[in-house]
Every structure is written in C-alpha cells, then in structure tokens.
Amino acid sequence: MKVNGVERPPTVDARRLLSDHLRHDLGLTGTHVGCEHGVCGCCTILFDGEPVRSCLMLAVQAEGHEVTTIEGLAPPGSALHPVQQAFHECHGLQCGFCTPGFVMSVVGLLREHPNPTPEQVEEGIAGNLCRCTGYASIRRAVHRAVELTR
Amino acid sequence: MKPPPFEYHAPASVDEACALLASLEDAKVLAGGQSLVPLLNFRLARPAHLVDINRIADLDRIYERDGGIAVQALARMAAVEDSELVARVCPLLGLGVRLVAHRVIRNRGTVCGNLAHADPASELPAVLLALRGHVVARSKGGTRIIPASDLFTSVMQTTLAPNELLVEAWFPASTGKYAIAEESRRHGDFALAGAVRYGDQLALFGVAPTPVLADPRQPTRGLQPTGDLEATPEFRLHLVQVLTERLFAA
Fold it and tell me: Which of B7, B50, B105 shows the shortest C-beta gap to A38?
C-alpha cells in the first residue's frame, strides 16, 4: 500500500487493523484511536482520496490502495495544509485528540463540496466527536478553510 | 479491542467467493465492514474465516432492472446516495440511505451489507420491506431470490444460508407517495423508532426484532418494543404513532 505517497511493505497479520498498522508498524501516530467501533471519528484517514474510518478496515484491505494520513497533508517544515491552517487560526482544537480525524474529514468534505452550504458543513463533521465540545470553533474553522482553499 | 484471530480470504470472483463459502466452516462475508469490524473489535463475532469480497471486480454497479433499481454487493452507500439514477427511479432509497450513520461511514458501508447484517433499527431493511423489494443470493448451487418479507427472521438474523452470498438488492421504483421519518438521540445514531411510507404501505423499524409491516390506521397494534437506556417501550410506541401520523398527513 502507498501511505502518504510512499510504498510500504505489506502487513503480516490479517487481523491487524489499518489504524494499528499505521500507528504501531509505520509509526504514524498522528492517526488517533478513540473508540475502535466507528463512532468517534478520530482515526479518519483518506482511502483512495475518500475519508473512511481506519479502525473499521483491516490493513490487508489497503494493499494496492492509497492511504493519506494527517502526516501526509503537509511535509515537515512546509506551510500547513489550508484545513490545518484554518483550525490553527480559529482555535478549532482544545486538547487536540479529535483534531486529526476532524481535519481529514474536512479535507474529504471540501474535496467533494469546495463551497459547502452550512448544512453540508454540519453533515460533513457530524461523524466526528469532540469531547471538549469545541464545535463552534471547529465549525468556524471549516468555513475559514473554504476561504483559504479558494 | 482487537479482532480475534481468523483466516483471511480475498476471492477475485463471485464464483470463487461462493466456492469458499461452500467449503469453509464458520465463515463470514466482509464487504464494507462498518458493522462487522466493530463486532470483531468487540469480539462479539469470532468467525473462523473472513471472506473479503472487496477484491471482486464489477460487483459495485447500481443499475435499472425490471422497473426498479438493482444495487450490487460492493456499491457503497455514498455511491447510492449520489446516484442520479436512484434519485430518479427510487428516491425513497436515496432518502433512506442518507439516514444511515454518517457520510464517512457511508463511503465504505454497502447497502447489501446493511441488509445482510439485518439490524432491526436500521433504515434500509424497512425500506426494502415497504417497497416489497428482494435480494439475490448466490451460492455454488445457483441463484435464489428472497423477497424482503421472507428475508428477516430475528435480530440480525436472516434466511441467507451460510454458503450464500448476497450479490444484489432490488428496490422497486418508488412511484407512489413515499416518505421516511425516524427519531434518534443524536444525528447519525440508530433510530429509537422509525417509519417508512410507500403508498398505503407502512413499515416500521427499531420497534421489533425485524422490520415489520403495520396498518397505518393502527400502527402500534401488536407491537411489543423493548426498552433500554435511551427509550422506554411506551416512548417507542408513542414515536410510532406520531411518526406514522406525520407520514400519512401529507
């Protein structure tokens, strides 16, 4: 599988979740693991460009596919990705645990809807939980990301 | 929470998948995985074998057939949601799919997997039932059509045999009056109770071990919903009454 543009060797164990493979085998700990049953959204990654839950996929299923994690959005030392920049500007994070999942969901949302309606923004982030309940700033960050992406 | 050990199989064709299902003991089919993988992670399901059908080519079509819409086993819910064909021929299916979980889940989850999983609180089994649709099951021995009314037997139980693969679901065109309504505690959650109207038909979900057809004039008759932390049986009956009245007021 290709992770953030780099071809990676296949996983050994079929029951290895993609989320655990990214974190434990590849050291990409930016993908967070919260609930492991698809509710919290923290482990959201891009699978062939579409946001999906990495805790609800087996790593073997990603063979031959492209995976993008939060680490792949902007190379180290370079400018932040517009969605990351928007979260930074709008204080769209408090403890930061949910942030990678939110950012990846929003990247997917804006690819699909470059000019989302407020309803599409609500729908787009509805599958991610922020237990600091910082939703107002997160919502603002999505709208800011739209401006920065233009 | 990690999946228990299993042997993994990734067949490249429907025939190969059916041959595996015929020869393996205690095998589960893995499609979108949005219901099965949580069960594996919680170790509520411990199949000896997983037959992953995601490597099968040309099994993700959404097409028109026999005056309705056929949705193949690997068609993701997001694709059904975005399909112009579905919007034109069977808009009720489109409405139902939008109520399932969240978009990120629908990017991976499949309509056929949702039906095979047969969660009694899920929308799509009730939509299939209200429309009098069917599913197509393939096995090494041949093909079998199972009408919605014969598919669901109990909580997460269907008449699909262990050696059968649900290859396609068929939803008749929704030409009559149609609507779906549900009540849930949080956006994207399973419904506490829900109702689907198609013409004079009413199908309910979340209030019995399977989706059920009901009389729109007496929708709660004979129902004995369970209670849990989120809703008492009485509240579920109340919701059925109110949702039905709303659907049939239009």
Answer: B105
- For residue B89, what are its two tokens? 């021929």
Residues with Cβ within 8 Å of residue A138, at least 6 apart in sequence? A87, A90, A92, A93, A102, A125, A130
Q: Which A residues, 27 through 56, put their C-beta within 8 Å of a C-beta on chain B?
A: 36-38, 41, 44, 47, 50-53, 55-56
Predicted model pTM: 0.96
> Do A118 and A59 share a domain, yes or no?
no
Q: What range defines the domain where residue A56 resides?
A: 2-72
ipTM: 0.95
B138 alpha-carbon distance from chain centroid: 17
Per the domain annotation, does A77 fall within a domain?
A: no
**In this predicted structure, what is the pLDDT of residue B1?**
59
Same domain, A86 and A142: yes
Are A58 and B42 in contact (CB < 8 Å)?
Answer: no
pLDDT in tens, B91-125: 999 999 999 999 999 999 999 999 999 999 999 99
